[in-house]
Amino acid sequence: MHLGDNEGFVRTKNIIEGQHLNTICSSGRCPNQAECWSRGTATFMVLGAICTRACRFCNTETGKPFPPDPLEPERLAESVRQMGLKHVVLTSVDRDDLPDLGAGHWVRVIRILRQVNPGTTIEVLIPDFQGRPELIRKIIDEKPEIVSHNLETVERLTPEVRSAARYDRSLTVLKQLADAGIRTKSGLMLGLGETEEELLDAMDDLLQYGCSILTLGQYLQPTRKHLPVQAYIHPDAFVRYKDLALQKGFEVVESGPLIRSSYHAEKHI
């Protein structure tokens, strides 16, 4: 399918561009963009399109971000209304430049989204907020139906793959969410050089820290300046990893070469 092949894709594109919104679908070069936009779904990215971190797997632009747009929450809520979404997924860039790391803006986005779309369920894919419990509590207090925070890779590879995040800190974020009764979700990329034993250990760590939904997908190098792919994982291996993850105790597992964090997220509700 080519981008723009059908009316659903064009309608989604026009709504997003008309409201001057960002999506991880575009900035992250998601391989599922055509499918999702054609179905009238998208993963909105708040707090701008420039990230303060420089993770070596991510295509999002790195640099000095602009101040948060105070009208973004209203425009996003209106876009969700126009699209008629029953479930919406939100993510953001890291905003280590802001005193509250963007948590206050997140709160406004969720509240206004609920005011305009009271029947829509909400999934948020949050940064680590530098592990600050008081900022994570702000998200918890808004009671989104699912909160996702991606581990991204195994412990050994984390310093090479993620610019500022830490493996143990991400697990602590998930635990704070789970301890508060929030349904939690995380994702891992495969093909970065991890061993099967390391992958299974990461699954065990996620379960131990309260994560109940897992996504597994193939890492794809966005540009030549990003980390190279170390291995292309066979689709049969993704099926086997899904079975193993379910046996270990995950409630829901999405596993496949093109699986991304928000793929078919509405099914996880």
- In one word, what is the shape? globular
Q: In percent, how helical is the residue content?
A: 25-40%
In DSSP terms, counting alpha (H) and pi (I) runs of 4 or more, how many helices?
A: 10
CATH class: Alpha Beta
CATH architecture: Alpha-Beta Barrel
Describe the protein in words.
The chain is α/β, with parallel strands linked by helices. Helix content is 38%, strand content 16%. The strands form 2 sheets. Strands 1-2-5-6-7-8-9-10 form an 8-stranded mixed sheet. Strands 3-4 form a two-stranded parallel ribbon. β8, α9 (196-208) and β9 form a beta-alpha-beta unit. α1 (7-18) runs antiparallel to α4, α4 packs parallel to α5 and α5 packs parallel to α6. The radius of gyration is 17 Å and the shape is globular.
Question: In terms of topology, how is this protein built?
Answer:
Blueprint: H1 7-18, E1 22-23, H2 24-27, H3 33-38, E2 43-46, E3 50-51, E4 61-62, H4 72-83, E5 87-92, H5 103-116, E6 121-125, H6 133-141, E7 146-148, H7 158-161, H8 167-179, E8 183-190, H9 196-208, E9 213-218, H10 235-248, E10 252-255
Parallel strand pairs: 2-5, 3-4, 5-6, 6-7, 7-8, 8-9, 9-10
Antiparallel strand pairs: 1-2
